[in-house]
Amino acid sequence: MSVCLFMSFEKPLNLIEALIFASDKSITEEEISQVLSELMEETIKIESIRKNIEQIRLKYLEMDLAIELVHLNGGYQFLTKKEYYPVINQLQIQRSRKKLSQAALETLAIVAYKQPITKLEIEQIRGVNCDYTVQKLLEKELISISGKADSVGKPLLYTTSGLFMDYFGINSTNDLPQINELIAENNTIGEQTE
């Protein structure tokens, strides 16, 4: 073991901070414990990880930085503070090629609210073929294949992914707006007859 690596073990806070920073999605306490336990060849307890994470969170709160440590989707991730969202939004507008199309958003909403769901069920709700949209959502890792349905032909079942949670800044699908919150009572289709 190199001297440099040995010295870093004396600062578990820095190791945990580095793991959270380097992770492209939220990282759980269990994943951090696994990585550090393998590296140090001894069991690193979750309580110790949790205490260090809280110290890191407080450190970032005390410093006047644009980022903060956030508990998200069962793990931890560094995110930009909410007051900086307008500037980040502008960046996202400039990178519009990565934005989701209306069809992708509609399909993603259907999967989020009806999961697990087959492609045929998505198509029945949307009324159009969804092959391309489902493929793009799989490529972007916003949805994933969660198994096969028991119906004829054993079609694939789709659910939202952990990246979906990160992308929309929620911990679970329970954080999504309830459908009755989105529907106004005076919305109707066609003419009303008495």
TrEMBL record:
<dbReference type="GO" id="GO:0051301">
    <property type="term" value="P:cell division"/>
</dbReference>
<keyword id="KW-0159">Chromosome partition</keyword>
<protein>
    <submittedName>
        <fullName>Segregation and condensation protein B</fullName>
    </submittedName>
</protein>
<keyword id="KW-0131">Cell cycle</keyword>
<dbReference type="GO" id="GO:0051304">
    <property type="term" value="P:chromosome separation"/>
</dbReference>
<dbReference type="InterPro" id="IPR036390">
    <property type="entry name" value="WH_DNA-bd_sf"/>
</dbReference>
<dbReference type="Pfam" id="PF04079">
    <property type="entry name" value="SMC_ScpB"/>
</dbReference>
<dbReference type="InterPro" id="IPR005234">
    <property type="entry name" value="ScpB_csome_segregation"/>
</dbReference>
<keyword id="KW-0132">Cell division</keyword>
<dbReference type="InterPro" id="IPR036388">
    <property type="entry name" value="WH-like_DNA-bd_sf"/>
</dbReference>
<keyword id="KW-0963">Cytoplasm</keyword>
